[in-house]
Amino acid sequence: MAFSASLSSPLHFRNPNPIFSPKPTKPATRPATLKPLLALPPSVAADVDSATIAAIGGGSVAALAAALSLADPERRRKLQAEEVGGGDKEVVKDYFNKSGFERWKKIYGETDDVNTVQRDIRLGHSKTVENVMKMLTDEGPLGGVTVCDAGCGTGCLAIPLANEGALVTATDISAAMVAEAEKQARGQLDLGKEGVVLPKFEVGDLESLEGKYDTVVCLDVLIHYPQSKADGMIAHLASLAENRLLLSFAPKTLYYDILKRIGEFFPGPSKATRAYLHSEADVERALNKVGWRIRKRGLTTTQFYFSRLVEAVPI
């Protein structure tokens, strides 16, 4: 998952990045349905439809932030964790094996049974996958290259990697996701083609990953880790990679952080997971600490999906 969702509001907040600024609209003379103006975290995005969420009063981002302090997302998350008998990891595992699996299977798939927001997230995620494939193939053919797809979801990256001849190990904390990924791979890959090998699919969390790979890729998974744990996870992933490590994550800025809090203020109809944003500086610092440096950078943006992509190599 990456940074996503929607908010309909009569207010026009100043966007510090003109890339994401909505076009000016003419003053309405009567009530009208407003288009989404801002983007929120993925844990809300998949739960809302194109007619959501609500109107908020106030005159500034600061006033809005103060209003958000009245929300109690932590209590909601605590109750959620108690239901599954654990912390963030157990919540993520439970979510992506149940309601989250069905929701994200649709988003990552090709069905028309998705709303406007979900379709936009699908587009954003597919662009991230395309950018990863370009980064990897720019360095040469992938035939015989060992790749670990950590947090493979339904196989959106593992399948094109295998199709290019890479020897892929694909893992995910969700058994349902792994089963779907293998099903999709068997249906899409031409296993009779020379050099094309079915990925090795495994169920497991990032902490349990072992082995050595030429390349390790972890897309939109760090959103489930607070920075204190993300540092250790980045170090662990780097220890598995010999030549390249590709990470994508929801970028943290003051602007996005406020939007994330808005998303927590308006929880979707279904329970979702906690979302953590990460600053590029923090990710880079974690990489440098274990002897890696960022060589390439990218940013995927659609109306409801924002994801920073970095490729790191040993120093």
UniProtKB/TrEMBL annotation:
EC number(s) recorded for this UniProt protein: 2.1.1.11
UniProt keyword annotations, A-Z = Methyltransferase, S-adenosyl-L-methionine, Transferase
Show the Gene3D superfamilies listed in the entry. Answer: Vaccinia Virus protein VP39
Name the Gene Ontology molecular function terms of this record: magnesium protoporphyrin IX methyltransferase activity
Which residue ranges does the record assign to the Magnesium-protoporphyrin IX methyltransferase C-terminal domain?
Answer: 218-313
InterPro entries, per the entry: Mg_prot_MeTrfase, Mg_prot_MeTrfase_C, SAM-dependent_MTases_sf
Query: Coiled coil where?
Result: none
Q: Name one GO biological process term.
A: methylation
Write down the Pfam families for this protein, in alphabetical order.
Mg-por_mtran_C
Concerning PANTHER family, the annotation shows:
METHYLTRANSFERASE, UBIQUINONE BIOSYNTHESIS O-METHYLTRANSFERASE, MITOCHONDRIAL
Give the protein name, as stated in the record: Putative magnesium protoporphyrin IX methyltransferase
Give the species.
Answer: Rosa chinensis (China rose)
